[in-house]
Amino acid sequence: MMKPLGIYIHVPFCKQKCVYCDFYSLPHRETQMDAYISALRAQLAETDFSGYEADTVYFGGGTPSFLGPRRLTALLEAVRAACPITPNAEITFEANPDSANDPRGLAALRRAGFNRISLGMQSADDDELKAIGRVHTMAQVQTSVEAARKAGFDNLSLDLIYGLPGQELARWRKNLSAAVDLGPEHLSCYGLKAEPGTPLYARRETLPGDEAQADMYLETVDFLESRGYRQYEISNFAKPGRESQHNLKYWTLGDYIGFGPGAHSDFRGVRYAWARDLEAFLRGDRILSETRRMTPRDRREEWLMLSLRLARGLDPAEWEERFGRPFAPFLPFLERCEAAGYAAREEGRRRLTPRGFLVSNQIIGELLDLLQED
Ligand code: SF4
């Protein structure tokens, strides 16, 4: 029996750098794209996939659509040549509206086997888009969605960001509503954070405060639920059956393997990441920035942390079966969270409420403190 696997391909190229971005992506490197495809092909070919078959493939970045249909198709073929892909696999590429608007190119990608697009919309307001360094407009978002539908993509996700500089709740509501009007199957909504080292960090005082961001978050959950999008993870919402199968692997301790500089893996019991170094990667130097054989204790911590990010929460019986340990030591704390409105109980499962998600780092931190030492 083959084990299911998620394959992640990192594309570290963007047209220009957004002011808030701390992903590994480089602007103005178009001349290196072909060499990058060759280097990825080599890395895929030298990997031992035996015993696995991919049921999700995800091209993330950076801006995968910036590579263009020809290179993306070549890469997907290289993945297929290296590892079997199940017939119903979810095959996603991330796209920016300015480089995913040609129906013919998108139709070619659909024919090549891609069946899901994750489109970086971020805002419906051109001034907001400009202020955060995005290269696209709302008109291009609309064109891109139409082109994707015309090309036969029936699984489309939109990424949005709330808490943009100077943004108020009413403006965010408008953005959300405009996104829903485009009819996506899935929405990811993230609160903007000013990460040190990004241009945004120097003007972080222009961002709405924590309370305003919290209001936007709670509004998001209510609004999207009312429009038929079920929250299934802290920041992710989907029509029934349209949850991201690839991202669910990360949150349910599934196996996944990443390719390209900056990509992370959890494969054959080892957690590792490739160094964020495009030049070294192109030279064929495979430099790991971290590697860790996961211990049972690591897995327990991870399971608690990740299960509570999911709206369905955790199942104490699964904990006991998976780790052979009683769940009882966690119950008094979870019951206190429940009394305070941060957690809830459903059919034996324990989950955080949207209010609980707002303070999930503290809640998970306290739970981890309760983990018994080995
Ligand atoms: S498009 Fe995405 S990856 Fe590229 S710079 Fe902007 S936020 Fe970063």
Mean pLDDT: 96
Oligomeric state, counting identical vs distinct chains: single chain
C-alpha termini separation: 32 Å
Q: Main beta sheet, described?
A: 9 strands, mixed
Q: Give every kind of bound small molecule, once each.
A: iron/sulfur cluster
Q: Tell me roughly what share of residues is in helical segments.
A: 25-40%
Number of self-contained structural domains:
2
Strand order of the largest sheet: 9-10-8-7-6-5-4-1-11
Shape: globular
Radius of gyration: 21 Å
Q: How many individual β-strands?
A: 16
Named CATH topology of the largest domain: TIM Barrel
| Poorly predicted segments | none
Structural class: alpha/beta
Corresponding CATH architecture of the largest domain = Alpha-Beta Barrel
The tally of helices reads: 15
